[in-house]
Automatic annotation (TrEMBL):
Residue ranges of domain Reductase C-terminal in the record: 311-378
Domain FAD/NAD(P)-binding: 3-290
Record bears the keyword RNA-binding: no
Cofactor: FAD
Gene3D superfamilies for this protein: 3.30.390.30, FAD/NAD(P)-binding domain
Keywords: FAD, Flavoprotein, Oxidoreductase
Name of the protein: FAD-dependent oxidoreductase
Source superkingdom: Bacteria
The UniProt record lists the keyword Chaperone: no
PANTHER family: APOPTOSIS-INDUCING FACTOR 1, RIESKE DOMAIN-CONTAINING PROTEIN-RELATED
C-alpha cells in the first residue's frame, strides 16, 4: 500500500492530508508534528487570542476528525533525518519508510545574534500557541510594550497592544516594509501606527533589560517599557534535512509544482518555490492551503485546478491592508486612489510596463480598481476620490 508521510501538522500539513482523502487516496497517511496537542492555525494568535480569546479557538481539527479519515496522527514525534535514496524518514521513534514525503515543517522566528540576549532575558517571540498565551498575559497585566520589528507580525502586535490599552513603542527600520509591501507601497504604515498612538522610533537603538524594565537607547531620550516582543522575520531552514536536501533560511528549494526530489514535496512556509519569491501570498496561510491542495492532486495524479491570483491581507488598527499579484523590488508604484486628505491609499505595481500587482490601505474600492488592472500594459491613470 502506498504510504504518504507528512512532516508538520499545521495548516499546510492538515490541508494536505484532508485533500488526499477528498481526492480518494486510499493508502496509508502518517502525519507527524514536533509539538504535542491538536493541530492549530497561526493567524488568530496575533489577533483575537492576544486580546483574550481562548487559544483553543485556533484549533484546525481534533484527533477524532483525523482518525475518522484514517490519518495516523503522531503529535510530539519529530522528523530528525531523511534518507532520500532509500525513501525513509528517521524520527525520534524510529524509521518510517515512505512512498511520498511532504515537508510541511513551516518556519521559526529569526533571532539575529545581536538580539539573542533579549530572548535570554525574557523578550517574547510569537509563533506558537504557547507564545501567544504568554504575550496575551502581558497585554492583560502590563502597562507598556516595546515591539522590535515593524513587519506584519510586529505591526499586528502593536495593533493588539494599543487596543488593549498599553503604551506601545515600535522600533522599526526607517524604510518601512510589511509583508510583500515595501517602499511607496508601504509608506502608509508608520503614519498609521502614529495616528493610533504607537510611538514609532526609527533610529538605531540598543535594547536591554534592567531592574526597572526594558530600555531602548537612541533618539533624544531612552524609551522604557514593561515588556518586549521581538518580531524581525522568520527562518525556514529545516535543519533536519541538512546534508540530504538543499535548505536555506528561505526554506527547501522546490520547483514550481512543489517537487523537491523524487517522492519528496514541500508545501507552506518551508517551501522555497521557484518563481514564487515576489508573490504577495508568500508565507501566508492562503499560499500554504493552495500549495497543499496542489501537491495532494499531484500525488494522486489528479488534474490541476486553476491557480488563484496570490492574495495578502492584514488588519491593523481596524484598517484592512490588502495586496494581490506580485510586487518585485523593481516595481513602480502608480497611485490608483487617494483619500480625502490627498494621501495615496491604493496602488498598482507596474513592472516593465505591465501591471503585476495591486495594494491598498483601508480602501476596498481602490483595491478593486488596482486589482482589475492586473495584466494591463497601459500605465494606469491616477484616480482621485
Ligand atoms: C502569529 C502569526 C500570525 C499570522 N497571521 C497570518 C494571517 O493573518 N494571514 C496569513 O495568511 N498568514 C498569517 N501568518 C502566516 C501563516 O500562519 C503561515 O504562513 C502558516 O502557518 C504556514 O503554515 P505551515 O503549515 O507551512 O507552517 P507552520 O504553521 O509553521 O507549521 C509547521 C509545523 O511543522 C512542525 N514541525 C517543524 N519541524 C518539524 C519536524 N522536524 N518534525 C515534525 N514536525 C515539525 C511545527 O511544530 C509546526 O506545527 C501568521 C503567522 C504567525 C506566526
Amino acid at each position: 500500500m502506498t504510504r504518504v508521510v507528512v512532516v508538520g501538522a499545521s495548516v499546510a500539513g492538515v490541508t494536505l492530508v484532508q485533500g488526499l482523502r477528498e481526492l480518494g487516496f486510499a493508502g496509508e497517511i502518517v502525519l507527524l508534528d514536533a509539538e504535542s496537542g491538536r493541530p492549530y492555525q497561526r493567524p488568530p494568535l496575533s489577533k483575537e487570542i492576544l486580546l483574550g480569546t481562548s487559544p483553543e479557538r485556533a484549533d484546525l481539527v481534533d484527533e477524532a476528525g483525523l482518525e475518522s479519515i484514517g490519518v495516523d496522527f503522531r503529535p510530539g514525534e519529530t522528523a530528525e533525518r531523511i534518507d532520500v535514496a532509500d525513501r525513509r524518514l528517521l524520527t525520534a521513534r524510529g524509521k518510517l519508510p515512505y512512498d511520498h514525503v511532504v515537508i510541511a515543517s513551516g518556519a521559526a522566528p529569526t533571532v539575529p545574534a545581536e538580539l539573542r540576549h533579549l530572548v535570554d532575558d525574557g523578550a517574547h517571540l510569537l509563533r506558537t500557541r504557547r507564545d501567544a498565551a504568554a504575550l496575551a498575559a502581558v497585554l492583560r497585566s502590563e502597562r507598556s510594550l516595546m515591539v522590535i520589528g515593524g513587519g506584519v507580525l510586529g505591526s499586528e502586535i502593536c495593533s493588539a497592544a494599543v487596543s488593549a490599552g498599553l503604551r506601545t513603542i515600535l522600533l522599526a527600520r526607517p524604510t518601512p516594509a510589511i509583508g510583500p509591501l515595501h517602499g511607496v507601497f508601504a509608506a502608509p504604515l508608520i503614519p498609521l501606527h502614529r495616528a493610533h498612538g504607537v510611538e514609532v522610533r526609527t533610529e538605531p537603538a540598543r535594547v536591554d533589560r534592567s531592574a526597572g524594565g526594558w530600555t531602548a537607547d537612541g533618539g533624544d531620550h531612552p524609551a522604557l517599557a514593561d515588556a518586549v516582543a521581538l518580531a524581525v522575520g522568520v527562518d525556514a531552514t529545516a535543519c533536519w534535512l541538512a546534508n540530504a536536501l538543499p535548505t536555506t533560511v528561505d526554506g527547501v528549494r522546490c520547483d514550481t509544482s512543489g517537487r523537491v526530489a523524487p517522492g519528496v514535496w514541500a508545501v507552506g512556509d518551508v517551501a522555497d518555490r521557484a518563481g514564487g519569491r515576489y508573490d504577495v501570498s508568500r508565507r501566508t496561510q492562503s499560499a500554504a492551503i493552495a500549495q497543499a491542495r496542489e501537491v495532494a492532486r499531484r500525488i494522486v495524479g489528479a488534474p490541476q485546478q486553476r491557480t488563484a491570483v496570490p492574495y495578502f491581507w492584514t488588519d491593523l488598527h481596524g484598517i484592512r491592508v490588502q495586496a494581490a499579484g506580485r510586487i518585485p523590488p523593481s516595481a513602480e508604484a502608480h497611485v490608483v486612489e487617494r483619500d480625502d486628505a490627498g494621501t495615496p491609499v491604493a496602488f498598482a505595481a507596474v513592472d516593465r510596463g505591465r501591471c503585476v500587482g495591486a495594494a491598498a490601505w483601508g480602501s476596498a474600492r481602490g483595491f478593486r480598481r488596482a486589482r482589475a488592472m492586473l495584466g494591463d500594459t497601459t500605465i494606469p491613470q491616477e484616480v482621485s476620490r
